[in-house]
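[Q] Does anyone have a clean structure-token version of this?
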Amino acid sequence: MGLWLFQLPVLAMGAIILGLIYLGTAIIYWVVTALAKRDRLRVAFKAISPGMLPPISVVFALLVGFMAAQVWSDSEKANTAVNSEASALRDAMLISTAFPDSEHRMKALIRSYIEEAVSQEWPAMAQQNATLSLAPPRLSEALRLALGLQATTPGQLDAQRELVGALKTALDFRRQRIILSSSRVNWVKWTVLLAQAAVMLVAIAMVHCDNQLANKIILTIFATSVGVAVVLVAAHARPFTGEISVRPTYLLQVMPEADAKAGP
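[A] Here you go.
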């Protein structure tokens, strides 16, 4: 599936996916109905046992379950990475109060880092173009500032150690979210899922080929189920892309604190 599809609102994505699945279902129905007009093929179709339909449906359901488990796990990990990164930055700002001479500079750097993450990294992650080739300059500078602090009391020594640890934690979770932004459901899984759905639709059309109205109703019901399952997986397939994606909410909540404390 193209990136443009994942960037659509869920309703628009659903309409396109359902439309394509209904079109494919209609083609299957027309082909099977045309073939069933031949006596030998109609007899062969009717000889297919309806008992084969439940096992095929179970296989389709298992495939959907496996794919859903993957995308929801990736989404949960991405949320955790962003929230943990924000928490680490918040800790760094609180700890920086132990160094009054450097507190404003530290908070200004963290504020600038968050601004760059939201304005530059998030669009890149949505396009799956974000990389780890360059370290974030503002957070790297903040880490250098923390390492160069002159701790004169035991409390400041502990604070410096905690400050450096918080900044390193933020860097680690930034790395995790960028890696997770590249996660996707590969084309093999999509192909297998849609092929299994097509097999099920063909089997239904063959079993009910002698009753066109019932065939249409059953095919429509199953096609709708397939479409809903595909939309569910596609809407969560890329953690930082689309309407249902991970937002920098908690990072933005850190910024007002930084602005208030780091002003002139």
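[Q] Thanks! Anything notable?
[A] Residues 258-264 have pLDDT under 50 and may be disordered.
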